[in-house]
Amino acid sequence: MAGSVKAFGWAAGDPSGLLSPFDFSRRPTGDRDVQFKVLYCGICHSDLHAVKNDWGFSTYPMVPGHEVVGVVTEVGSKVQKFRVGDKVGVGCLVDSCRKCDQCANNLENYCPKPVSVYNTVLPDGTTTYGGYSDIMVADEDFVIRWSENLPMDKGAPLLCAGITIYSSLRYYGLDEPGLHIGVVGLGGLGHVAVKFIKAFGSKVTVISTSVGKKKEALESLSADAFVVSSYPAEMQAAAGSLDGIIDTVSAHHPIEPLLSLLKPHGKLIILGVPKKPLELPVFSLIMARRTVAGSMVGGLKETQEMIDFAAKHNILPDVEMISMDYVNTAMERLEKADVKYRFVIDVGRTLKKGE
Fold first, then answer.
1. Helices (H), 15-172
2. Euclidean distance between CA atoms 248 and 206, whole angstroms
3. pLDDT-derived band at 97, boundaries 50, 70, 90
């Protein structure tokens, strides 16, 4: 690519998912582009799915990472929102068609032609690469201004986990104070959900298959109640008590027991992406006018709103900081759910050539 910028990161070369050092090129900083030095990048469960081609549309070599934060090193001549030295972030998207109804309504994430931060081939034939790398170049419209009082290292996963939770709560009206919301699964998404729901002023019941997470949920995360989903007595006691449920589980699981926990007109919002389709128990829906719905990350305006809200309410994911050369071990541990609760790569200090 003429005038391209040399970049370095770690990439997966095939569906084994193993990552290794990788030299590649970024586009030069255009008139409306922001280039920044990557300092931290979160590891999302969808990165694991992507590198292993679990969803069937992965392209290689692939540099994952869509929870990317850093400091601006260069801006294009027409950039108005940012300047060198600003703290910024990039999430799942780096472009969209900008013409459809979704884009017109600040819902670029639902554009029929979204451009993901990685694993997407652009119209000009070039490939997008993610944040497991030293630098990032993105259009200023898809760059988030990072709040000064929000730590970048712990905050990085907010760019996916945070906005996925925030957007689902806001869109489905589960952000009102005084509600009682259930959270299924106490992992990377689930623990962030507890924090946002509490900040919105609602009660939280954590629903999990693991008895061992009860203390963490109630004491560390300040959940109001904990229900073991495999204990019929506990599920029966909680029946009909919840206004809504945020289901973060990406493994295959039955949803009928969850529906029984909802009040009439309650909403079950599914955020996890199981490999196999879930069964839909229609009778439970019809008899209590319940809703089963889905949601994903938000648009850029809402993502900025979420970052500002998180900064105001001191909402930060619980993270384990790792070095770049630990990433394959981290992926193995993530597959076993062996992390509390998100990995974040210290890219700025540990990404080195020659590894």
1. 45-51, 101-104, 152-155, 161-171
2. 11
3. very high
pTM metric for this prediction:
0.94
The CATH fold assigned to 5-160+317-350 is Quinone Oxidoreductase; Chain A, domain 1 (3.90.180)
- Distance, in Å, from the CA atom of 277 to the CA atom of 178, rounded to the nearest integer, reads 33
**Which tokens sit at 140?**
């200023």
- Beta-strand relationship, 33-43 and 135-139: antiparallel
Q: Which two tokens stand for residue 209?
A: 């298959």
How confident is the model over 183-217, as pLDDT tens digits?
Answer: 999 999 999 999 999 999 999 999 999 999 999 99
Instruction: Give me the sheet containing 262-270, strands edge to edge.
Output: 225-228, 203-208, 180-184, 242-247, 262-270, 291-294
Ranges of each domain in the chain: 5-160+317-350, 162-294
The yes-or-no verdict on residue 233 having pLDDT over 70 is yes
Q: Is 40 helix (H, G, I), strand (E, B) or coil?
A: strand
Residue in this structure with the two tokens 């090129």, named with its chain if needed: 25
CATH 3.40.50.720 for domain 162-294, yes or no, is yes
Q: Are strands 68-75 and 87-90 parallel, antiparallel or unpaired?
A: antiparallel
- Compute CA distances 344 → 31, 111, 195, 259, 321, whole Å: 31, 28, 19, 34, 5
**Do 353 and 224 meet the contact criterion of CB atoms below 8 Å apart?**
no
| pLDDT, tens only, 302-332 | 999 999 999 999 999 999 999 999 999 999 9
